[in-house]
Amino acid sequence: MRHIESHLQQVCLKWARMQFPVCRELLFSVPNGAHLSLMQAKILKGEGMTSGVADMLLLHPSADGMYCGLAIEFKAGRGRQSERQRAWQKALEDVGCYRYAVVRTFDEFRELINNYL
């Protein structure tokens, strides 16, 4: 499933960066799922890497002014969020100015970004 999610995320990122100039700099991935050596994992954890963080972040307010940023979690097929991902989503949404979305297809992503921006 990781490769399917990775491919979906790559296609979505490329499209968004072509469609919206703001996405070229302010839409980026959070590589929490990367395979790391033990030493690399310790270093990144010490630098603040946190499990459960969404796959992609857009640090730009929504067009309607309701949100100050967007967090996107990519899931393939019937993939489900982990307990840590659900906890991170709740913590983010509790702040009150961030939107969180789970995306399973390119069409869902396109609709999300078009409506958000």
Description of the structure:
The structure is a single chain. By secondary structure, the protein is of the alpha+beta class. Helix content is 47%, strand content 15%. It has helices at residues 2-19, 23-26, 38-46, 83-95, 106-116; strands at residues 27-29, 56-58, 69-74, 98-103. The protein has a four-stranded mixed beta sheet, with helices on both faces. Helix 1 (2-19) runs parallel beside helix 5 (106-116). The longest helix has 18 residues, at 2-19. The chain is globular, with a radius of gyration of 14 Å. 17% of the residues are buried. The mean pLDDT is 92.
Question: Topology, pairings included?
Answer:
Layout: H1 2-19, H2 23-26, E1 27-29, H3 38-46, E2 56-58, E3 69-74, H4 83-95, E4 98-103, H5 106-116
Parallel strand pairs: 3-4
Antiparallel strand pairs: 1-2, 2-3
Helix pairs in contact: 1-5
Write a concise keyword list for the protein shown above.
single chain, alpha+beta
Low-confidence stretches: none
Strand order of the largest sheet: 1-2-3-4
Strand content: 15-25%
Cα distance spanning the termini: 29 Å
The biggest beta sheet, please? 4 strands, mixed
Number of strand segments? 4
In quaternary terms, these chains amount to single chain
Helix content: 40-55%
Q: Give the overall average pLDDT.
A: 92
**Which H/E pattern describes the elements?**
HHEHEEHEH
How does the helix and strand content classify structurally?
alpha+beta
If you compute it from the alpha carbons, what radius of gyration comes out, rounded to the nearest whole angstrom? 14 Å
What general outline do the C-alpha atoms trace? globular
Q: In DSSP terms, counting alpha (H) and pi (I) runs of 4 or more, how many helices? A: 5
